[in-house]
Amino acid sequence: MSWVSNNPSASQEAARQQFLTFQLDGTEYGVSILSVQEIRGWAPVTSIPHQHEWVLGVMDLRGVVVPIIDLRRRFNLSPAKFGPSTVVIVIRVSTGVSERTVGLVVDAVSEVYDIEANALRELPDVGSGAASEVVRGLAHTDGKTVILLDAMRLAMQNC
């Protein structure tokens, strides 16, 4: 008797990754779901003097002081008022030596996509800029292009 598994093989799993997508100024971005610790509604933060303009401040997250980054400001996008759909995506990355937790303020969370490794495209050379420094690649899914961000670079370069 033969048995066929409906579960993808390890190689298929390695070839596919999940990304949490979110909106910024009408454009959809994504970050690896493995780096997402939690999603929180917007709440005021404690300002810290002499920070980059995109660092809104810090918040206490169960005893951990977390810097909060406004991605609109970081990417030089037009400012927007925070509303009911504004959220903070808390990401955590590890370098093997240290761990970093950062909150990213975004307009709204969209959904989670499974993206095949072969669907990932390199960002064309568009000059230097804050966004291109942290872009992992582009993916076309559900009839739209999603800009995939590198969580490690976002967390390590912003504060």
Number of helices: 4
CATH-assigned homologous superfamily: CheA-289, Domain 4
Poorly predicted sequence stretches spanning 5 or more consecutive residues: 1-6
What is the name of the CATH architecture?
Beta Barrel
* Number of discrete domains: 1
| Strands, total number | 11
Percent of residues in helices comes to 10-25%
Major sheet: 6 strands, mixed
Provide the CATH top-level class.
Answer: Mainly Beta
Question: From N to C, what is the helix and strand string?
Answer: HEEEEEHEEEEHEEH
* Classification by helices and strands: mainly beta
CATH third-tier fold name = OB fold (Dihydrolipoamide Acetyltransferase, E2P)
What share of the residues does DSSP label as strand, in percent?
Answer: over 45%
Sheet with most strands: strand arrangement:
8-1-2-11-10-9
Cα-atom radius of gyration: 17 Å
- Shape field: globular
What does this structure look like?
With 159 residues, this protein is mostly beta strands. It has a single domain, classed as Beta Barrel (OB fold (Dihydrolipoamide Acetyltransferase, E2P)), CATH 2.40.50. 13% of the residues lie in helices and 47% in strands. It has 4 helices and 11 strands. It has helices at residues 10-14, 71-74, 130-134, 151-157; strands at residues 16-24, 27-32, 36-41, 55-61, 64-70, 87-94, 99-106, 108-116, 120-121, 135-141, 144-149. A 6-stranded mixed beta sheet has the order 8-1-2-11-10-9. The protein has a 5-stranded mixed beta sheet with strand order 3-6-7-5-4. A hairpin with a 2-residue loop joins strand 4 (55-61) and strand 5 (64-70). The chain is globular, with a radius of gyration of 17 Å.
